[in-house]
Design brief:
By secondary structure, the protein is α/β, with parallel strands linked by helices. Helices cover about 35% and strands about 20% of the residues. The chain is globular, with a radius of gyration of 23 Å.
């Protein structure tokens, strides 16, 4: 009776806030046991008064989702800060693009050129679904933003980001969580806030956190589905809760929300490379990791393939690696094929023939996809929303490449860029404020 009476004295809205706070507290307590320590040094004294960046990655969140599905908190974030389209690197896939955001490098320069690829120097395949591959730091190039911060005496934390639970260049983030698809969004929010409540010497100035709701729903049901609408609104609520709790901390936190790519329904007329090359002249099985990257056994075989594919189908273009259009930045890595196929339409592509029953089951389970060149398929474009004490409010900027996020974060955190990156720093010049 007493508990019921006390409950009635609390307004519904206040009750909801208390319940959410209790849930956050419980989630943080549970998750702290899973947090790993990768770099156990205090923030250098000169870094402790620097601003903070919370980088939120929304996998598969298309550039128009917030407007289409009334994501009011994201829209408000853009009105009160900045909002623009984020252009993915080619190919518009998760591993290449989240790692481009983390390093400021195009895939040809950081090495993760596809979700799966073949390396001609290592003579090995990489597949992001293979934990042994994904956790091997020898595949990853560049200096991830968390490693750059730590080299300069500043703590960083990550909650699921490509490469963030991997030892790259001898470093992992100060705090990180090994990937677990079953961890709920509320737990992630709780952990971010828990990190930001640490004492100044232990508090990370960079926190990156990843959510896959939109990508999962988009693949399974298509971008125009009710399931994607629900995923977008759920993510909008999560971002809103994160922003509200950050505001309560009274710290100079800059909130950046980005995505790796968009999503589009696939056409059902798949491209089968075998139809053009013939069953007797296909890439060796070990080299078929990526159907858009064709690795030949000899220059003569590569030229035969080129003659067989060139100008044979309006749905794609084929290039010798050295001739890939410069704007794709996809020609200077041994992990890129001798020939590169650039799809001009949202179609599935495979190297060997696919049995009809298998193809039908595939399209039933995954009607939408990504990976296409945004020049031909603009639905591949993603988002950038940002607000904070170091971000100009109301700045009008055009679409930007995702390699510009890295120099923006270094500018906000007062870090010196170490080595060459592909980001031009133009975004930082346009929206940064002291």
């Amino acid at each position: 009776m007493r508990a019921r009476k006390i409950r009635t004295l609390i307004s519904p809205s206040r009750r909801g806030g208390l319940m959410y706070s209790l849930l956050v507290f419980i989630c943080a307590a549970v998750l702290n046991a899973q947090v790993r320590i990768g770099w156990d040094r205090d923030n250098a004294p000169e870094q402790q008064n620097k601003p903070y960046v919370v980088l939120v990655g929304l996998d598969g969140f298309r550039h128009d989702y917030a407007e289409e599905y009334h994501a009011t908190r994201l829209q408000a974030l853009g009105r009160n800060g900045v909002h623009t389209t984020l252009i993915p690197a080619f190919p518009s896939l998760t591993f290449p693009n989240f790692y481009s955001i983390a390093t400021g490098l195009y895939p040809q320069n950081h090495g993760i050129v596809d979700n799966a690829f073949y390396d001609t120097l290592k003579q090995r395949r990489f597949d992001f679904t293979n934990r042994d591959d994904a956790s091997d730091g020898n595949w990853y190039g560049g200096i991830p933003i968390w490693a750059l911060a730590q080299r300069q005496g500043m703590r960083a934390a990550t909650f699921f980001w490509v490469g963030s639970d991997v030892e790259i260049g001898g470093q992992r983030p100060s705090y990180y969580v090994p990937f677990d698809a079953n961890i709920p969004s509320e737990t992630k929010v709780a952990q971010v806030i828990s990190w930001l409540r640490l004492p100044p010497a232990k508090r990370p100035h960079l926190v990156a956190v990843y959510f896959n709701d939109a990508d999962h729903a988009g693949h399974r049901f298509g971008p125009d589905s009710n399931e994607v609408r629900e995923a977008v609104q759920r993510l909008d609520h999560v971002v809103g809760e994160l922003e509200d709790q950050i505001n309560q901390l009274r710290l100079p936190v800059n909130l950046l929300v980005v995505s790796d790519h968009g999503m589009i329904l696939q056409k059902r007329d798949a491209i089968i490379v075998q139809d053009y090359l013939g069953a007797a002249d296909l890439p060796a099985p070990a080299k078929r990791a990526s159907p858009i990257n064709l690795h030949a056994d000899s220059p003569q075989q590569a030229e035969r393939w080129y003659a067989a594919l060139y100008d044979k189908d309006p749905r794609f273009e084929v290039y010798r690696r050295a001739d890939v259009p410069k704007q794709l930045h996809y020609s200077s890595s041994p992990r890129i094929g001798d020939l590169v196929i650039v799809l001009k339409e949202p179609v599935q592509i495979s190297i060997p023939a696919i049995p009809a029953a298998v193809a039908a089951k595939y399209f039933e389970g995954q009607p939408a996809n990504h990976g296409y060149d945004p020049r031909f398929v603009p639905e591949m474009n993603g988002i950038l929303y940002g607000r904070g004490p170091n971000i100009k409010a109301g700045a009008r900027i055009g679409p930007v490449e995702n390699v510009e996020i890295y120099p923006l974060i270094t500018r906000i955190l007062g870090l010196e860029i170490d080595g060459k990156i592909d980001g031009s720093r133009q975004l930082a010049k346009e929206i940064y404020r002291r």
